[in-house]
Design a protein that fits this description.
Length: 298
């Protein structure tokens, strides 16, 4: 009995130490005190290398270390916050601005740290999203896409039983995960790089593997095929999305546009009218303009 009590006290003391280490590290991170951060991490690792927060903290430490601001002078204005440089004659000589770059050595250490954490604690969604966020900042969109797909595949294995910081269960985990995945898809789309459309398709297809009625993913693939002028394939996905969510203005708007491009005037008019019923003011105005043109035979 005495040994059992001592053992329980021992584990309680480890748990308390880890929580203190996490809090102390967060304080040092906010203070941007990298020396103290490393001291805490080194002692923490010696005391309990099995603590998941240790790996997220190492990731934050190295990622923060990798981030550097670089000042440059350019002939053209590359940002809103650039400083205009004027020569003695009053002519613009250039623009001074700053940009963020990432040191490859510390960045590599950051990703190695979080990869160890993900390997040991595969259901920690904050680790996966933290890595995805870092890859996105570095515009490494191939690795970004692969990590998103790994996360979706893990959701199939763990049935969306996700944990967050300090091993707290995620509220409404499936919708939380899918909502963030869609925001990453939008991040890819907003780059304006058509070469990344295939990445969007890959991510969306993986979501549909586990969530076949996910409207956003069905719409993503539909838009992929619209852009590639494969209208029949586009309709296969957008009509499925419409079945799942008939009142979605964006879905019916995409269907209307697809039918218009396909030359199916009757169905285009039908779905533009649905857009008038379900869309916001902007969508209604666009739908009305399209209807007017179709009725005029344009």
């Amino acid at each position: 009995m005495k040994k059992t009590i001592c053992l329980a006290l021992f584990f309680l003391s480890i748990s308390a130490y880890c929580q203190d280490s996490y809090k102390n590290f967060q304080d040092a991170l906010k203070a941007n005190d990298t020396t103290k951060q490393l001291q805490i991490l080194t002692q923490w690792e010696k005391s309990n290398a099995k603590d998941p927060e240790l790996y997220t903290s190492y990731y934050n430490y190295y990622f923060s270390k990798s981030r550097q601001e670089v000042v440059s002078i350019d002939k053209e204005n590359k940002g809103k916050e650039s400083l205009k440089l004027v020569d003695p004659t009053g002519n613009v000589a250039g623009y001074m601005g700053s940009s963020i770059v990432y040191d490859t050595y510390f960045l590599k250490k950051a990703f190695e740290s979080i990869d160890k954490g993900i390997s040991k604690f595969p259901n920690r969604l904050d680790m996966r999203f933290g890595k995805i966020y870092g890859l996105g900042l570095n515009k490494d969109y191939e690795a970004f896409t692969k990590e998103i797909i790994k996360t979706i595949e893990q959701s199939g294995k763990n049935n969306n039983k996700w944990l967050w910081t300090l091993n707290k269960p995620v509220d409404d985990p499936e919708n939380f995960m899918l909502g963030n995945i869609q925001s990453y898809v939008e991040q890819l789309y907003n780059t304006g790089n058509d070469n990344l459309l295939k990445n969007i398709k890959q991510i969306s297809e993986t979501v549909l593997k586990y969530n076949p009625k996910h409207v956003e993913s069905l719409s993503n693939i539909s838009i992929f095929y619209i852009i590639n002028k494969e209208y029949d394939k586009s309709l296969q996905y957008s009509l499925k999305a419409h079945e799942s969510r008939p009142g979605d203005a964006m879905v019916v708007g995409n269907i209307a546009c697809t039918y218009k491009e396909k030359g199916d005037k009757a169905n285009a008019i039908k779905f533009y009218k649905l857009t008038l019923e379900h869309g916001d003011e902007s969508a209604k105005q666009q739908a009305q303009k399209a209807l007017d043109k179709l009725k005029q035979g344009n």
